[in-house]
Structures are given as C-alpha cells and as structure tokens.
UniProtKB/TrEMBL annotation:
PROSITE patterns noted in UniProt: 4FE4S_MOW_BIS_MGD (PS51669)
Species, as recorded: Lysobacter hankyongensis
One Pfam family of this chain: Molybdop_Fe4S4
Residue ranges annotated for the 4Fe-4S Mo/W bis-MGD-type domain, each copy included: 18-74
Protein name: Molybdopterin oxidoreductase family protein
Segments of this protein annotated with the region Disordered: 288-316
Keywords, sorted A to Z: 4Fe-4S, Iron, Iron-sulfur, Metal-binding, Oxidoreductase
Keyword DNA damage: no
Taxonomic superkingdom: Bacteria
Subcellular location: Cell envelope
UniProt record similarity statement: Belongs to the prokaryotic molybdopterin-containing oxidoreductase family.
Length: 979
C-alpha cells in the first residue's frame, strides 16, 4: 500500500518582516515612496508607501524588482585599476586609498594649470545639485548631465515659452480635465502618477487621444490613437492652430491677461531692432491701449469678460501703454507708428499671419503627417468644444498679481502631456513650443482642467541663471556650468566665436543647450575639438553602448591612440554600481552603491517630485550598510556612494567650499552635505524641517536633526499650496508670494507667457549682422534659419539630407514599461518578462518589402547595417518600424550568462544612428538646444541571408559570467517559514 501524499506545511499568516524602513525608489524617474520590509537582515519584499505624494502606495513591476537590483550579480565589489588594454575589461582590484590617491594625482595638476582639461559628465544620477556645484568649484566649464540626449529641448522649449515644461515638471489636471492629448508619451518617465491619473480619467469618461507612431502602454488604453509619422508632430499642431484661428475658437482674453499677445513688435526689416519688443524708457514692453473697455469695469472678475476684439478691427483712438498695466483694452491686430517713426504690430498679428497661411491647413499637412485632414479638423473642434463649451469653473476666490479679485477660477478642461516622442528630433524644440502655443490659444496653461505647473515652476521666461564661463581668483566658476542663455552675450565662446566647451554646448552651433551635450563629448575629446582634455570623469553613463550614437566608433574613440602611442583621451575615471559595458573602457573604476545602500537628496534644486498642489522633496538613506552586503559569490563588497566619493576627492584637491580653514574636509560625507550645505543663505538641498529647531520649511538655517525628521516622516517632505494659489500660478498673487517665501522665485512679479520669443530674435539679429557679438560666418545661415521667434517646422535633418527612396522607413525605440535603461534590463525578475527584443513592423510593411512574420532582416541606414529578427504588429504606423531600447547587451557585460539572449539575439538601433548629420557638418541634434535626434533615424529593410544571431557582434567582455543556474531569491526564507 502506497504512502499517503505529502502535504506541505504552509504558513498561512507569514510575518511581513522584522522591521520596515522607508526610502525612495530608484528604478525609474518616478522616485516613488518605498516601504522596505526586512527579515533576518534581508529584504522580504518592497511595497509602495501609501502616504507618499508621488505614488500613493502604487508600486510597479520595476519598483518591486528593486530586490533583484540590490542583489544583482553584476554589482561591482571593489575599486578597479586597468591592467590590460583599454576596452579589454582586464583589471585588478585595489583599495580605496590607492584609488582616491590616483584620481587626485590626475586631477590636481589639471586644476592647477587649466580646470577645463577635466570633462565631468554624468548620466542618470539625480544629483545634479551636487555634481554641478562640484564642477563649479573645480572650475571646469566642461560639465553636463544626461539631459542633452534625453529632454533638453523639451525643457528649453517650455522654459523659453511658459516658464515650465512637460516631462516630470508639469502634469495634466487629473481631477478636472475632460480631454487629454498625449504627444509622444511612452511608458518610462513618471509612470505611476500617469497611471493613477489615467485611471481617474477613464473612470470619469474623459477622452484620451494618443499621438504616437506606436500604440503601446498608455496609448493602448486611449480612446483614439493618432498614428503620426515621426517628426511631424509640429505640423499637426500647426494645423490644429490654423483651424482654431480660422474658426475664431481661441481665448483672446486669456492671451492678453497672461501672455504677450498684445506686446508690440518692431517691424524694421534689415534694422538692428527688427523683431524686438517696443519698450518705454524703463524697458517695459508696450502695447497700444484703446482705452478702458466700455463693458469692462475696473478690476473686473473672470465672470465679467468683454467680447474679444476681432481680427481686422480698427484701432481707433488710444495711446502707447505699459503692456502689463491693468484696466486696458489693448489692440491685438493692426499696425501703429511709434513716436520715433518706427512701425510696430502686436505679437498676435504675427502669429495669425503665420499660422493662417494655407501651408498649415489640414489638407496641406495631412499626407506628410499621415493623418486624414478630416481627423485634424475634428480634433480641433473637439479641443475647442472641451475648452470653451464646458462652462466649467471652480468656486474658489483668488487674487491676481495686479490685485484684481476673481470670484471663481474659470476652467479650460483640455490638458496635454508630451515626452520623448517629440523631443528626440532635430525639430523638437520648435515642436515643443508649438504645443505650448496651442495650449495658450486655448487658455489651457494652469487653468482648472488643463496643464498645471509643479513647484518650483513657473520660473521667469527664460530663467535667470546663466551658464558660468569666467573663473574667479580662487579658480571657481562665476556661476554653475549649466544655465539659460538670454542672448549672444551669454554664450561660452572665445573671442573668435569658437566653442570653449568640449561638447560645444552654449556655442553658436547649439546656443540654448541648457543641459549640455553628453552625446558629443567623446568624439570631441578624441578629436581635440576645440582642445585636448586630460581626464574624462563619468558617472552612470553607459556611453560605450546603449547611450551612444555611433556605438562602434565611440568604442574606437575611447581606445584610440595618437602618433606617440598615448591614448587620445589620457585618463578615464568611471563610477557605476554594475559591470556595464562602459566599465571596460575605464582606467579607474569607482564602485558605487545600490540605491538601498546610499544617501540621496531628491531636491527641489534638481529634479523635484512636486505635484501641482504642493511642493515635495525626499531622501534616500541606507537601508543596508554596504559593508554587510556580499556579492553574488558570497564575497564582501567595499563600495562607496559616488556623491560621498566626490566630496572626498574635492577635499583632497582642496577645492573651495570643500575644506575648512585648516584644510580639513568640510563635509563628513554626502549625508552631512545634504544637511549642512547652503546654496544661498537658508537654502539647502532639502526644504523640510529647516532651522535650528526644525520648525522652518523652504528656507531656514541648517538643522543637524533634519535627516532624522525625514526618516520619521517616511522619507519625504510635502508642503501643500494654499487652495487660492493652485491655479494661474504665473499670475496668482497668493502663489507667487508663497513661491517667493520658499525661495523658488526671486520676485513676486507676474510671469508673462511668451507666444513670441525675443530671446530667439536676438540670435537671429546677430546672425543678420547686428550687434557686437555675431556668429562666425559658417554658422550665420543656421542661426538665422532656426532661431525663429515664432515656432516653426522643418524636415528632420536626416530625412532632409538623406532624401530619396534609399531609406524609406522611420525607425524609433520605445522604453518598455517594465524596464528602464540598461541597468533595469539586467534585472533577473524583469528579464522574465523579456530577455530580448525584436523589430516590430506593420504586416502591410512586411508585404511591401517581401518579409514574413519572424523573418530575420537586415536593417540599414546611411550610417550602418544591423541584422535582427522581425515581428509583425498592427500597433505601428506603416512607414515606421520600432523596437524596445536598451535590452540588447554586449556579451560578457552585466554578468549575464555567456549565451544570454540579450547578447545573442538582442540588439540596439544605436548601431545605425550616426552622431553627426549625413552632411557631416554638425552633431545629429536639434540646432537650437543640441538635443540628440535619436528618432530621426531613416532605414531600409530586406530579408537577411543569415538567421539566429543579431549583428553586429563584438568580442565578449571578460567579466565573470554569472552561474547558469536560475537566479532565485527568497527560497531560504520560504523554507524557514514552512519549517
């Protein structure tokens, strides 16, 4: 007789852990609140913090998989010193004292002879408030973060138009919007708040329209998908603007109250003042005031709006008046003669003249965009109906900047959100500006139901901080290396107008490159353009692989030698937590911690986590001491947080602000810096619990007990905005006073929205031969063309310079919702979702090129060829092919198994993307901001002669591969629970 079946002993009420600690997630840009449950010194599980303002308890697959990020076999163990050829991946482990002494010996002579010989470029660090300050104290102009190939034209397009931007710095009014347009939004940034918001919209029956060549993620749940051709979003926006103007469905009252629609622009073709604003003796912009409107009593509220002036209406009597004065009835169309005889017209007239042109009519742009003209007209009607026919307002009294009382907040329940799908093009800056003009015409900037600013935005247009370029007597820069150029005088160029920065940011080639240009630094350093550097210091930027355009050549530039046999880039110092592809190209590797072993400040001085109703910041603090954590082979790890290492290096170098009067380190570590450093009196990295007693917020003296207060409060600080201050922030007296009190803005003056940019016109005038600072001859036409004060559209450079039938398809990447950058796609749990990628194409596209589902194909651009597997999908515009990015790995990297699918079948489109234009004259980037034009790629496809392995393949890196056995977690804990 057989034995009875064994019944497992199950613990039906397992303990969630011995203790719980609160910190901030690092698995994407959301920066959600985490509860880390610990049992027997190990993570039991990760849970969303329900009290946190960002995620309110929600945690996605990436966040939950943070366990496997912390226990990844790819974690570095000790500092590494190169022993073989650069790129070979051959190192020996060294101690920290030796590593820091070596780094100091390289950096100290640079600081003494020429600080610009250090190029300090960081990736997804989220600590620019420290790294930018460190570069300023070192004195190098050659500092940048990852935004130059990520979002700089999105940020600049917004900050030079409305004083805020899309991305993580603004949000739709999730509670009230009735019509949401998502432009180029994938599933990567800010995902949990967007998911929460979309759930509210779906429950309320609001309409969601997704504009994207690919329908995935958020677009998949949209009510309507607009499968647009890549790079034509600006044309679509202009067609919508055309229709709104043609049908007179715009909010002129809003444009006059809050924007510069009525400001007078001088018309003097060929003159040095052409296109500038007419101003009075005090420099204030002027308008033509037709006198008090008979239907508008003084200090009228929103409910007493006059009928708007119509196009073509005569000016009649009146006078020149300060455009920001109250109780005026300004003209928005027409022409006037100034007292000195010059001719001037309002901004709105220039806007109407441009976008009412037939070239922007729906029928004219339909074929180019791939959108039926009737669809364009319908979307325009729906936008207007949602904005103007809803009769929506909030019964909240408020006071505007001029002291006018309003008994309600009039709503415009149309919201827009945009991301990389519009920014990663060479025309992305103007496309972003076009969307902001569309929003302004609808009165849909920070009105109830529309796009909303998140503190510390809005900022003055443009923000006041200019990039540093001169060194003080102590060797520090006169300002932070990154900033916002306001005119040619702010460029970082030499007396001949040539670039002074190694990446050419803030030069005549890319003047408004507010985040710098990480994607150009390696080529320029290799070429010695404009000069040779000595040391390249990088943090968490995988520039030899998935963060490189022109990947093969980038690897060559990192290893190339000059005629004397020396490396063209003499020293490379790299810090990362994991054995990425870039580690192999370093001379010295400084191992970083995981995010559960470190201090971090998610600061309002950097990339804030605020929402539209309040200001927030947060910290990370060590849940585990890295000295107690072992690597995948059970060996102890000796790693340090990069921010603390930077401060240690700064003290060893004697950098100003990093040592005391006796030359001793001023900061014990980054945690000490977070608490005690002041950027200005009372302003530090963290805004909560300041002051000696911790009872001040926003501004106040350092509080030595500050971190404890954060930890007690779940790791975050949140200050709600008063109810009367939550909308119309650019001109809301209560908000501006609140923001000034917190140090977000320097004054309480209103912030006029800019339909027309005088900053851009200043550059155009310089290119036309006016002013003391003019571009070199080779840049004149480029600057004059692309620095248009009104948004414009032009064919993306790769299409325009590589026209014809040779490369008929667009190729783009999307970030999957379940992974984020290469360091997420090495995660054991997330790899269970996908271990490789394929090239998706529409079945009609397959038939067009003789390709069957799951065929292997050759994909070629003007730059190169790759071999990949194709897969049919109906969720893509037929003239576009696409794939998930950053899944393909170089074999040997990330301690994956030697035959891991990521290395054998996975691939990158990066191998096809040139870092320069087809013409070879400029970087493959936006000409205004230098934003990398990843999505301009044009390709041809054909069936491949080989199958089974992607190409190109490179020599595997000799990092130790992980064990072939499945990487499991928690089995021992489960066994103990069931014992």
């Amino acid at each position: 007789m057989s034995a009875p079946p064994h019944e497992p002993r199950l613990n039906l009420s397992p303990s969630p852990g011995d203790e719980v600690k609160h910190t901030t997630c690092y698995m994407c840009a959301c920066r959600c609140g985490l509860k880390v449950w610990i049992k027997d010194g190990q993570i039991r599980y990760l849970q969303g913090n329900p009290d946190h303002p960002v995620n309110k308890g929600v945690l996605c697959a990436k966040g939950s998989a943070g366990i496997m990020q912390h226990y990844s076999p790819a974690r570095l163990r000790k500092p590494l010193l190169r022993t073989g050829e650069r790129g070979s991946g051959e190192f020996r482990e060294i101690e920290w004292d030796e590593a820091l002494a070596l780094a100091t010996s390289w950096l100290k002579p640079i600081r003494e002879r020429n600080p610009d010989e250090l190029a300090f470029f960081t990736g997804r660090d989220q600590s620019q408030a420290l790294t930018g300050w460190w570069a300023q104290q070192f004195g190098t102009v050659n500092y940048a973060a990852h935004g130059g190939f990520c979002s700089v034209n999105m940020a600049a397009g917004g900050l030079y138009s409305i004083g805020g931007s899309f991305w993580e710095f603004g949000e739709p009014d999730w509670e009230h919007t009735r019509y949401l347009m998502l432009w180029g939004v994938a599933e990567d940034h800010d995902s949990n708040p967007i998911k929460l918001g979309l759930g509210k919209l779906k429950a309320r029956g609001a309409k969601i329209v997704a504009v994207n060549p690919v329908r995935t993620g958020y677009g998949a749940i949209a009510d309507e998908w607009i499968g647009i051709r890549p790079g034509t979003d600006g044309l679509f926006a202009f067609a919508l603007i055309h229709e709104l103007l043609r049908s007179d469905r715009i909010d002129l009252d809003y444009l006059v109250r809050y924007a510069n629609a009525h400001w007078l622009v001088i018309r003097n073709p060929g003159g040095a003042d052409d296109g500038l604003f007419a101003r009075d003796e005090a420099g204030r912009p002027l308008c033509w005031n037709r006198g008090p409107h008979p239907n508008l009593p003084p200090h009228a509220g929103e409910g007493d709006k006059p009928p708007p002036p119509r196009a073509g209406e005569g000016w009649g009597g009146g006078s020149l008046t300060d455009a920001n004065a109250t109780d005026i009835h300004p003209a928005v169309v027409g022409e006037c003669t100034l007292p000195d005889g010059r001719i001037a017209v309002p901004v709105f007239q220039l806007l109407a003249e441009r976008y009412l042109d037939p070239q922007y009519a729906p029928d004219a742009v339909s074929e180019r965009c791939g959108i039926p003209a009737d669809t364009i007209r319908r979307i325009a009607r729906e936008l207007a109906q949602a904005a103007f026919d809803s009769d929506f307002s909030l019964p909240i009294a408020w006071t505007d900047s001029w002291g006018r009382k309003h008994n309600e907040m009039v709503g415009r329940p149309v919201a827009m959100h945009a991301m990389r799908g519009i920014s990663a093009h060479s025309n992305g800056f103007h496309t972003c500006r076009a969307l902001h003009v569309l929003q302004m015409l609808l009165g849909a900037i920070d009105a109830p139901g529309s796009f909303r600013y998140q503190p510390p935005f809005p900022k003055p247009v443009p923000p006041a901080n200019r990039p540093g370029k001169a060194r003080r007597d102590n060797g520090t820069l006169d300002a932070a290396p990154l900033g916002f150029v306001q005119g040619p005088e702010d460029l970082v160029v030499d007396a001949q107008g040539q670039p002074r920065r190694i990446d050419h940011a803030f030069s005549w080639s890319y003047p408004l490159s507010a985040h710098g240009m990480l994607h150009t630094v390696i080529r320029n350093a290799w070429a010695g353009d404009p000069y040779r550097i000595d040391t390249l210091l990088m943090f968490m930027a995988n520039m030899s692989w998935n963060s490189a355009m022109n990947t093969r050549e980038t690897m060559h530039w990192l290893t190339d030698r000059d005629g004397s046999g020396d490396y063209r880039i003499p020293h490379i110092i790299y810090s990362d937590a994991y054995a990425s592809e870039m580690v192999a190209y370093a001379d010295l590797v400084l191992p970083d911690t995981t995010y559960l072993e470190r201090h971090d400040a998610i600061s309002l001085l950097d990339r804030p986590i605020s929402d539209a109703d309040g200001a927030s910041d947060a910290i990370r603090h060590p849940v585990f001491d890295p000295a107690t954590q072992h690597d995948g082979d059970g060996r102890p790890r000796d790693v340090r947080g990069f921010q603390s290492v930077l401060l240690d290096l700064g003290a060893r170098l004697g950098l100003p602000g990093m040592t005391d009067e006796n030359g001793a380190p001023k900061y014990r570590d980054y945690a000490d810096y977070m608490v005690t450093h002041e950027r200005a009196p009372g302003v530090g990295l963290l805004a909560g619990w300041r002051g000696a007693d911790g009872d001040e917020h926003g501004k106040g003296a350092p509080n030595p007990d500050q971190l404890r207060r954060y930890i007690e409060h779940g790791g975050f600080w949140h200050a709600p905005i008063p109810e009367s201050a939550r909308y119309y922030k650019m001109a809301n007296r209560d908000y501006l006073q609140w923001a000034h009190r917190f140090g977000f803005i320097a004054t309480t003056d209103p912030i006029p929205l800019q339909l027309y940019s005088e900053t851009l016109q200043k550059f155009r005038l310089a290119a036309q031969g006016h002013g003391a600072l003019q571009p070199p001859e080779e840049h004149r036409e480029r600057v004059a063309t692309y620095f248009d004060p009104l948004p414009m559209w032009y064919e993306p450079f790769e299409s325009a310079q590589n026209a014809g039938a040779d490369h008929p398809l667009s190729a783009i990447t999307q970030r999957p919702m379940f992974m984020y950058h290469a360091w997420g796609s090495q995660n054991a749990w997330l790899r269970q979702i996908a271990t490789r990628n394929v090239l998706y194409l529409h079945p009609d596209t397959g038939a067009r090129f003789g390709i069957a589902d799951e065929d292997w194909v050759e994909v070629s651009s003007h730059h190169g060829t790759i071999t990949v597997q194709a897969k049919f999908a109906g969720n893509v515009q037929p003239d576009t092919v696409w794939t998930w990015n950053a899944i393909g790995k170089r074999r040997g990297a990330w301690k994956l198994a030697k035959n891991a699918p990521e290395g054998e079948q996975g691939f990158l489109l990066n191998h096809l993307i040139s870092d320069i234009t087809p013409r070879g004259d400029y970087a493959n980037a936006d000409p205004v901001t230098g934003q990398a034009a990843w999505f301009d790629l044009r390709v041809a496809i054909r069936r491949a002669d080989t199958a089974g392995m992607s190409a190109p393949q490179f020599v595997p890196l000799p990092f130790d591969a992980t064990r072939d056995a499945p990487l499991r977690y928690g089995a021992a804990m489960r066994a103990k629970d069931h014992a």
